[in-house]
Design a protein that fits this description.
This protein has 327 residues and is α/β, with parallel strands linked by helices. Helices cover 39% and strands 19% of the residues.
């Protein structure tokens, strides 16, 4: 049983939580609901967070996995593509069905798509560093002919990889990976394929890097660490791995306050706390409130860097917002 007078220092990471791409995607769904009314269809979870998805569902968003789930008499309703991106075949299918679609792909994911397509146009095969089956990986691989892109997840995958021409290769990566793991795979690629071409700028997004660096800074001083996020959130899972790798003895992925592993933290005195890029601030606040009912809590924020990145929502939704402001 945890004593309510036990002291607990919470080291709160900054940056944490929503990134610009997630914020933009959620705004796109909300502004679409405001402009067009319900229902608005969303292909796949707009971002990987249960709380966000359920909140948008309560406002009239309908989440689907494939376009054929939309009734024909609703083809005039907006269908939004998630922040993770989609294969080329998806907008092509939407156009064929005369659907009205809005693309909420994160601009940093779109950059990887353009990069892969540009290298392919130059006659290069693409090696994609990423996790099998993740929507972002499916979307990126879907930008290219099937026989021109190879997926690797580990250094061992690189060692097993056979390509037709090792002098005509480029690589790119999923934006939400572990910076450390990716660097090891890139090094293995460069050793095996010395002529391989890399991205003009790092593919792993600024928010993923910043959140991982913040966790690295506090992990050695934490008895345990919570990452607020959903089990299917790649960047959240990577934060748990980073915490363990950098000296935190116990690290947990926690969806919300109901997920707190009380029996595993009864004896701790310092708790690191962060949130994945798709987790809203309210979940962090709720976890701190719950901890305050069982411990004498003191919160200390450690700010590693400030983020000021923003991404515009599509013009048709900005125009609607501007007209609303004028009225």
């Amino acid at each position: 049983m945890i004593k309510t007078d036990s002291p607990l220092k919470i080291i709160l990471c900054a940056p944490r939580g929503f990134c610009a791409g997630v914020d933009r995607a959620i705004q796109i769904v909300e502004k679409s609901l405001e402009k067009y009314g319900a229902p608005v269809y969303v292909r796949h979870e707009i971002v990987h967070n249960k709380f966000v998805v359920e909140t948008l569902r309560s406002k009239g968003a309908v989440f689907i996995e494939e376009l054929n789930e939309i009734p024909e008499n609703h083809y005039d309703r907006p269908v939004i593509f998630s922040a993770h991106g989609v294969p080329k075949s998806v907008p092509a299918d939407a156009q064929k069905r005369n659907m009205f679609y809005i693309d909420a792909t994160c601009p940093l994911v779109t950059k990887v798509h353009y990069e892969a397509a540009r290298h392919h146009k130059m006659g290069l095969d693409i090696i994609l560093i990423g996790h099998t089956g993740h929507p972002e990986v499916v979307g990126t691989m879907g930008q290219l002919p099937e026989d021109s892109v190879f997926l690797v997840e580990t250094v061992e995958d690189v060692e097993r990889l056979n390509v037709s021409d090792p002098t005509k290769l480029a690589y790119c990566s999923q934006t939400t990976l572990s910076v450390d793991d990716t660097s090891a795979i890139v090094e293995a690629l460069r050793q095996k394929f010395p002529a391989i071409i890399g991205p003009s700028r790092e593919d792993i997004c600024y928010a993923t890097t910043n959140r991982q660096e913040a966790v690295k800074a506090i992990a050695p001083n934490s008895d345990a660490l919570f990452v607020i996020g959903s089990p299917n959130s790649s960047n959240s899972n990577r934060l748990v791995e980073v915490a363990k790798s950098y000296g935190c003895p116990k690290a947990f992925l926690v969806q919300d306050e109901s997920d707190i592993p009380w029996d595993r933290i009864a004896d701790i005195r310092t708790l690191g706390l962060t949130a994945g890029a798709s987790a809203p601030d309210i979940l962090i606040d709720n976890v701190i409130t719950a901890l305050g009912k069982n411990f004498e809590v003191k919160v200390e924020e450690v700010v590693l860097t400030k983020e000021n990145v923003t991404f515009n929502i599509p013009r048709l939704l900005r125009e609607a917002e501007e007209q609303h402001d004028v009225r």
